[in-house]
Amino acid sequence: MKGNRTLTIIKPDAVSAGNTGGILQMMIDAGFKIVAMKYTWLTAGQAGKFYAVHSARPFYNDLVQFMTSGPVVPIILDADNAVDAFRKLIGATNPESAAEGTIRKRFASSVERNAVHGSDSDENAAIESCFFFSGLEMFEAK
Ligand code: CMP
The dihedral of CA 119, 123, 129, 130: what is its sign? Predict the structure, then answer.
């Protein structure tokens, strides 16, 4: 059965451009409920750990540098089939390939500065949520 939680991060490009409100509104309009949210600034250690799965990729160091270049807004969202539904809402990683009406089509400027992160599986949604927020009870459906 598909889970009903996903983890998103509004990334430094979107926060610094003043797009946090517009992105939150798109999430809410699409039917996602905010379960937890904070405004924070990642250290290099935190960003490196969050993206450790990409540590062998050529873009890893730039990605960590970008993700620590300004404040971010991590959020746990609730909806039916949340991971897949949210990935549909954000659109393709590269905004040039993102569909009309998606968050990345509207707010992203490149594959790196792509406005938002979205978990790619229920398992990673749980891991990533615990990375930013304490308390496993967040994963119990209300
Ligand atoms: P995100 O969904 O946060 O997950 C991994 C991130 O790595 C991705 O969004 C992009 O921001 C970044 N990324 C993926 N592929 C590339 C690439 N080819 N060049 C630069 N950044 C990338």
Answer: negative
25-60 tens-digit pLDDT: 999 999 999 999 999 999 999 999 999 999 999 999
Residue 57 near residue 51 (C-beta atoms within 8 A): no
CATH class held by domain 5-139: alpha beta
Q: How far is the CA of 48 from the centre of ligand 1 (A)?
A: 13
- The best mutation among 6, 111, 119, 132 to test binding of ligand 1, ranked by most ligand atoms within 8 Å of the C-beta, falls on 111
Secondary structure letter of residue 98 according to DSSP: P
Q: Residue 119: which of 5, 21, 6, 4 has the closest Cα?
A: 6
Q: What is the pTM of this model?
A: 0.95
**Cβ atoms within 10 Å, residue 63:** 19
**Enzyme catalytic residues:** 117
